[in-house]
């Protein structure tokens, strides 16, 4: 019976150690997974997205690079309505606020650029839009397009001490788009603001639709290719992306995992000490029995 109890205790001890080792392995795996997630979050912080409704936007800056093309007209319209064209291809009266800036680009310092910066629409509730018409009389080119760039506030340019440096920085930080000749390109803009701990970045997103221009001018005038562009806000919402989840939030989970590892190691240590103690007691009892017999 004593042998059976001792054997049972040893089996129970082995099972207990196995359980502790299994728990330690699970805790180590969780630590590895947590560290991996920590490294991922360090490179890709988690953000939350909210939408802020506004009645109007700050007028953006629409920087156009027409090259040899000529701006024929630039007018404001409302409620998604553009009147029928009258004498397309000929200069017409406009009502846009335009600032011309010459500067050397950040990537091509030897080449001077000419930018026509138009004050963009702001009244999103009344669907304010800007309709522009360009003419290009060069026919030897294989492809014809006009490049443009958007930045957050037209007032940033007018209030800038050095407009050339301002435009150079904008070109370095913002994307460029194009619209082609012979079409009307309708650009609908939306604004995304991403806020971090220190800095805030502004990004424009846009959707564009292209419609072919049916040229009804006399054939002798059709050598001048026409470009049409429309800019308006897509909706009255600003996309606010806020960095909410910091990679350091994983430290709390990591501490919990390491605490579990410590507890498992401590349990294993106490178990081994208990086994050694029980073994010594068993040997003392056995020696005492042998002495009594002798």
UniProtKB/TrEMBL annotation:
<dbReference type="GO" id="GO:0005886">
    <property type="term" value="C:plasma membrane"/>
</dbReference>
<protein>
    <recommendedName>
        <fullName>Proton-activated chloride channel</fullName>
    </recommendedName>
</protein>
<comment type="similarity">
    <text>Belongs to the proton-activated chloride channel family.</text>
</comment>
<dbReference type="GO" id="GO:0005254">
    <property type="term" value="F:chloride channel activity"/>
</dbReference>
<keyword id="KW-0472">Membrane</keyword>
<dbReference type="InterPro" id="IPR029366">
    <property type="entry name" value="TMEM206"/>
</dbReference>
<keyword id="KW-0406">Ion transport</keyword>
<dbReference type="GO" id="GO:0034707">
    <property type="term" value="C:chloride channel complex"/>
</dbReference>
<dbReference type="Pfam" id="PF15122">
    <property type="entry name" value="TMEM206"/>
</dbReference>
<keyword id="KW-0812">Transmembrane</keyword>
<keyword id="KW-0869">Chloride channel</keyword>
<keyword id="KW-0407">Ion channel</keyword>
<keyword id="KW-1003">Cell membrane</keyword>
<keyword id="KW-1133">Transmembrane helix</keyword>
<keyword id="KW-0813">Transport</keyword>
<keyword id="KW-0868">Chloride</keyword>
């Amino acid at each position: 019976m004593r042998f059976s109890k001792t054997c049972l205790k040893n089996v129970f001890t082995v099972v207990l150690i196995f359980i502790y080792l299994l728990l330690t392995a699970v805790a180590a795996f969780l630590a590895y997974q947590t560290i991996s997630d920590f490294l991922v979050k360090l490179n890709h912080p988690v953000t939350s997205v909210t939408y802020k409704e506004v009645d109007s936007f700050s007028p953006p800056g629409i920087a156009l690079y027409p090259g040899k093309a000529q701006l024929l007209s630039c007018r404001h319209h409302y409620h998604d309505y553009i009147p029928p064209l009258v004498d397309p291809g000929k200069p017409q009266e406009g009502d846009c606020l335009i600032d011309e800036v010459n500067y050397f680009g950040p990537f091509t310092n030897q080449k001077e650029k000419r930018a026509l910066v138009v004050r963009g629409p702001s009244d999103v509730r009344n669907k304010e839009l800007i309709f522009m018409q360009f003419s290009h009389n060069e026919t030897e080119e294989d492809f014809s397009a006009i490049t443009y760039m958007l930045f957050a506030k037209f007032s940033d340019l007018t209030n800038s001490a050095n407009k050339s440096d301002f435009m150079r920085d904008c070109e370095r930080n913002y994307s460029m788009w194009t619209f082609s000749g012979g079409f009307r390109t309708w650009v609908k803009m939306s604004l995304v603001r991403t806020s971090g701990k220190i800095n805030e970045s502004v990004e424009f997103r846009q959707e564009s639709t292209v419609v072919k221009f049916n040229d009804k001018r006399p054939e002798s005038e059709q050598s001048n290719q026409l470009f049409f562009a429309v800019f308006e806000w897509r909706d009255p919402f600003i996309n606010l992306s806020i960095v909410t989840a910091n990679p350091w939030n994983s430290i709390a989970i990591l501490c919990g995992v390491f605490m579990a590892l410590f507890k498992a190691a401590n349990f294993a240590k106490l178990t081994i000490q208990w086994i050694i103690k029980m073994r010594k007691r068993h040997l003392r009892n056995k020696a005492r029995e042998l002495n009594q017999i002798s």
